[in-house]
Amino acid sequence: MTSLEPRILIVAPSWVGDAVMAEPLTALLKERYPHSVIDVFAPLWCAPVYARMRYVHRVIENPLLHGPLNWQKRKQLAVTLAVTHYTHAFVLPNSWKSALIPYFARIPARIGYTGEARFKLLNDRRQLLPKLFPRLVDRFAALSYPKGTAPDKIKTPMPVLTPRQDLQRAALDALHLSVGPAPVAIFCPGAEYGPAKRWPAEYFAELALRLIHEGFVVWLVGSPKDRAITDEIVAAARANAQSDDVPQLYDLVGKTDLSAVVDLLAVARVVVSNDSGLMHIAAALGVPLVALFGSSSPAYTPPLSPHARIARIDIECSPCFQRECPHNHFKCMRDLTPQMVYQQMVALR
């Protein structure tokens, strides 16, 4: 390896949506260091996202994101990473623990925000300026620029994910799904953070029946934790349709992993999603997207795509950033009607 071939390690965040927000950083690093090799040290559940980024060479599992410090295990992991002779480490989480392994691995340039008093662990520390960089994606992107770069010189490209066509075909075959002639609408009704970010199940059901009436098929996707929500959607759709079955509505929750969901999202004619990791994945795939915001704010983590529209209502208590509605009225989502969301879908066509 020569000085023209830096090896870069990105210590990644643990949320899927934050993983998507890190993609522009990889693009900017490749632009700044054209001959670099970029690896990502990330939790296993985020690996499918990083594996579909344009400039990521390898994803290395990070098993130590939560729980005890486990000092000895971190030193062991650092030894395995040191063999690669990384020249740069970009530490995206702000925790003290996240900066330990690059320090133990003696990576020469360790870049990140000061965070939890990481004065010795990082040797290229940046001051986080939330007012100048309200969006998380810009905070990550800024780390690719030399320290002291003027904020107005920071240019953040859109995140881009590339589906795996072979795995997409395998997922479709395994689920006995086909694409065409009926257009596919995909709903992402979950939100890991809490119920305050979830549009009501009966609203998803009403919108699904309207699209089915127009000739769509509707797929419900999410993690196994979303099973109760999709059960509610299917039950509400059957009740409204006065039928024991709605054959154009497919509940895929529990039948797919994140890798399959990423590739399936790419076939959608339109995606409707709560503010979640899947929302960011859909945006990065470039599919038409309606993003539903209630308790959270699109100012911090908006869907970054020219094909995305935000559906929200302007009320005094939103955004509250709470897991559950502190006022017990849930107006931010209850007053966001299926008709409003449908109109945003129409605007995308």
Order of helices and strands: EHHEHEHEHEEHHEHEHEHEHEEHH
Based on DSSP secondary structure assignment, what is the total number of beta strands? 12
Proportion of strand residues: 15-25%
Major sheet summary line: 6 strands, parallel
Q: Helix fraction?
A: 25-40%
Total helical elements:
13
Return residue spans where pLDDT drops below 50 for at least 5 consecutive residues: none
Taking all Cα atoms into account, the compactness measure Rg is 21 Å
Q: Calculate the mean pLDDT score and round it.
A: 92
C-alpha geometry: globular
Secondary-structure class:
alpha/beta
Report strand order across the widest sheet: 3-2-1-4-5-6
Distance between the termini: 50 Å
Question: Could you characterize the architecture of this molecule?
Answer:
With 349 residues, the protein is of the alpha/beta class. It is built from 13 helices and twelve strands. A six-stranded parallel β-sheet has the order 3-2-1-4-5-6, covered by helices on one side. It has a six-stranded parallel β-sheet with strand order 9-8-7-10-11-12, with helices on both faces. Helix 7 (165-174) packs across helix 10 and helix 8 packs across helix 13 (338-348). The longest helix is centred in the last third of the chain and has 15 residues, at 227-241.
